[in-house]
Amino acid sequence: MMVTDLQHFVDLPADVPGPARSLADQLHAIIRAATAEKAGMAWETAIACKRRPGRQRCPGHIQVFRADLPAPIEWRCSSCADEGVISNWEGSYSDLRLPRGERAASQTDEVVISEEAFAALRDLQLLDADCERLVYRARATERGVVLRTDAGDLDELMGFVAAEANHESNPRRRRRLDAAFDALYEAFKAMDE
Ligand SMILES: [Zn+2]
Question: What pLDDT digit, counting tens, does each position of 86-111 carry?
Answer without folding.
Answer: 999 999 999 999 987 787 777 789 99
